[in-house]
Every structure is written in structure tokens, then in C-alpha cells.
Amino acid sequence: MISMGLINNNETCHVCYENTDGKIKCQYEKSKLFDYDGKKWCMFHNPDQNIWANTSSIVHFNEEIEHILKWATKNQEEIVDFSYTKFPKEFKIPQELYTTCKSDISISLKNCEFFGKIIFKSGTINIDFSNAILYESVIFIDCTLKDSSFNNTNFHSKTIFTNCTMDLTIFYETQFREAVLFYWTTFCSLIATEKKTVFESVTFCKDATFTNTVFPPDGIFKDVTFKKEVDFSYQGSPYPARVFAFLTNLQNTTETYFSSHFKKEPINEVWGISFINCKFNTSTFENRIFTAKTDFSSSIFYKAPFFYGCKFHQHTIFPEQRNFKDTSSLEAAHAYRTIYLEMINLKSRDYVNMFYALMQKSERNSGAQPHCIRIASWLYEKTTTYGQSISKPICLLTILTILFGVVYALLASPYYDSSSSIDWDIILHGMDTSIQQIVKPFSYYAETLSKKNLMQHTIIFKIAAMTQSISSLSLIALFLLSLRWKFKKD
Q: Phi first, then psi: what are they for 175, rounded to 5°?
């Protein structure tokens, strides 16, 4: 039960459960106190949601918030502190908030909780949402977020940023637990903050859509995890089907909330962006033109990325081949082929080789190729990693030479006894015979065989020699092809 009474000078609001030492002071000094869970709480910090069952309480809450904003604007305060406030489900953003922000007054919503849907529309916002928890949908429409922070903010429901401008806005350790949409949003330069990270240590638990989004030059995504699908594509027409479905599926959200057209011209160019230590599930970058350095180094793609219709800058950095985990689907083969063809246009031979290897491995694993082609593809991968490795053929050739040398020595031995001493002459001659099959393939010297008792194993020897000659010639050819491809001039 909640009891209400006049404030006692000796009693203060507990503010939050973490305030065990009383260092956090309640900013609503004149508010009445309520008893709950053995502690005193004002109506703004009270964790019991039953307090909002009374309509008059909601009205009073909204009026008090608006009054605080007006007072701050009138007195030109530097910051308005709403930290740790529990905003009820019926709370509505007052228009006075935009007036306050226009006066370069910051609004602190640190550690606040919002229990209802929040809509920010057509205004400038300078708000710190650090450690805030938002349980229902949050919508930003035609807003300019100036020097705002979303550090460790927790979005529990769908989130929308449409036709917004992010000016010096940082997302750090933010949690998006449901789908999030950044549509036609512009992220401005971060030079004034001496940081270039747009999103750092952010987790997108569901689909993330950045359709038609404009990123700042040298903007950085760092340690970001995309657990589901992420879409960085460009779509020229307003409201592509995917975006429109996202908007209209929001409960009680009508089309009047969204602009019927956009003031900005469509921009499909990306002026330099980096994805450092990011983890992608399904990712789409369709129809983007990368006009400056683009860095995906150290990122991991659990599904093959889609770059259909993209143009890459010459300074494009992809992660190592092992960071592309998807090599088992036909869709992956098409995705890698797209990048492979673009790398040919850029004459980036290392990436041409890498994406060719990924494409071939995906085609083989998908089962679309005939069985004999899959075997040849597997052998090509194991011997040269699809032409990428120069050392592999040489190492394999060396190993085969030694193994067949041992085989020839065993064939030349008159008897086998583990207690006998090693006849190094026979072993050396076996190695010499093995080297001969490389220098003069398919040549068999009968006189040599008879001298070393190999005639008794003529058939076995010829089969071994033929196998070695074919294998050796193949490895030498693969080595020369890999070497030529690695260093040839275009």
C-alpha cells in the first residue's frame, strides 16, 4: 500500500535502490513523499507503478515536468536534471522540451525509466539518455539530436530514427533488444568530440535497418554485434516495402506520424567508414557507393554479406578469409561472386584470390556442382588454397619425395627385421630414385632396379613411381601457376 502525506523535513526521497549511502539527492524537493517497500519516495522516483492509477496524479506529473522545463528556460540553466525519474505510461513529451533544447540547455535523463511509448517530433534535442531504460517504442521523427548521448541505454521495444540528424551523438554500450530503424538519418561529423566512433560496443539483438542513412567521413562502428539482419542498403524511393512494413506494424502508430516526403536529396555515397571488431549475421550493403576508405578489418561475417550493386573505393579493407564463416549455401556463392567481380575491376589480386576461394568453396559445399568437380575443387583447396598459397605445393612436394623415398627403400630391402641395422645405402638410393621420378617422370631404369633387388617388386614400383610422377608434376604446375598469379603484372 502507498500512503501520501506532507513532506517531513527529516525525511528525504530515497531516489533509487542503488542510493544506499544517500549521496544521490532528490531534485524534487517540494514533492510529497510516499511509503513503499519500507522507504520514502517522491512521486517522480517511486518504483511502484500503482501510484499512477489516479488520473490526477498523471496530470500533476506532466504539469510539474513542463513547469520545470519552463523555469529552466526562463532562468537559462545549463542543465535540467530529471535523472532517476520514472516516467509513467501516460507521460507525453511536452512542447516546452524543444524550446528548452533550443536555448542550448541540456536535459539529463540519466538512469530514467520510460514505461510508455515516447515520440519526439520535429525539434532539436540535446538530451543525455545514459543508463536509461525504455520499455515501449521510441520514435524520433524529423529531429536534430545535438550532442546527445545513448551510453548504456536499454531499448526494450522497437526504436525508430527517421529523417533525423545526429550531430555529435554517440551510441556506447547501447542495447537494442528489438528491431531498430535508422531511416534517411544523417550522422554528422564527430570532430568536435575528438572521437570518430558512431556506435561502440553496441548490441543489436534483432534486425537493424540503416536504409538511406548517411554516415560521417571516417565514422567508426567498433565492437558492434548484429545478432540478426542488418541493412545498410540504399533505396531511392521513399518508404521501401521493408521500411513501410516496419513503420505500420507499430501498435497504434498511424501514417500521420511520418513525413510523406523527405526534404533531403537521396544520398547513396559513403564517404569513408570503418567496422572494427564488429560481428555481422545477415548484412546488406546494396546499391552503396564507397567513395573513400572503407575498413571491415577484424570484423566477422557469420553470413555472407550482400554488396549487390555496390562500387568499392580502391582503399577497401576486408578481414581475413577465416572471418567469413558462411561457405555452405548457394546464396553465399552469389554474394562472394559479386565482391570477386568488383575486386577484379579494382585489380586487387589478393582479394580477388580470397573471394574466388570463398566462392568456389561455397559452390562446392552447396552441392550444386557435379561430384567430380567437387573432388577437383577440394584437391585445389587443399594443395594451394585455390591458388593463394605458394608454400603449400612445395611443402607437399617435399613430403611426397621423402615418403616415396622410404617406399622405394622398403621395396629394395632384401628382408625386413626390426633388430637389423639400417642400411643407409639402400635408404639413400631410395631417396635418389624418388628424386629421379621428379627430374625424369615416368622413366624406369631396369638396370637400377635389378641392382637393388627392385625387380621382384616391379609392378608395385611402377605404380608408386607413376603415382609420384603425376602428383609431383601437378604440384609443380600448381606452384608455378600460384607464383605467376601472385606476382604477374596487369
A: -115, 115
